[in-house]
């Protein structure tokens, strides 16, 4: 069963337009890809490192 906004384990941003002009993120939060080229390259993510970097950036200053 498909969940709205999800396709084959990928989720589009809620800010996406209907023309696929956005990026998609894997439901596992492990990668992102260009929605216009779903068969193309994927950028892998290290979720723990990403969250750590965001927390460090947020709490600076």
Q: Any overview of this molecule?
A:
By secondary structure, the protein is of the alpha+beta class. The chain has one domain. It has one helix and five strands, in the order E-E-E-E-E-H. A hairpin with a 4-residue loop joins strand 3 (23-26) and strand 4 (31-34). The longest helix is centred in the C-terminal third of the chain and has 12 residues, at 47-58. The termini are far apart.
Mean pLDDT equals 78
Radius of gyration (Å): 14 Å
Total count of helical runs of at least 4 residues: 1
Number of domains: 1
What would you say about this model in short?
The protein has one domain. 20% of the residues lie in helices and 26% in strands.
Keywords:
61 residues, 5 strands, alpha+beta, 26% strand, elongated
Secondary structure topology:
Blueprint lengths: L5 E2 L2 E3 L10 E4 L4 E4 L7 E3 L2 H12 L3
Antiparallel strand pairs: 1-2, 2-3, 3-4, 4-5
């Amino acid at each position: 069963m498909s969940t709205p906004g999800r396709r084959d384990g990928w989720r589009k941003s809620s800010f996406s337009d209907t023309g696929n002009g956005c990026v998609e993120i894997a439901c596992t939060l492990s990668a992102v890809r260009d929605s216009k080229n779903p068969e193309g390259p994927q950028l892998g993510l290290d979720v723990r490192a990403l969250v750590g970097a965001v927390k460090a950036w947020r709490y600076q200053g």
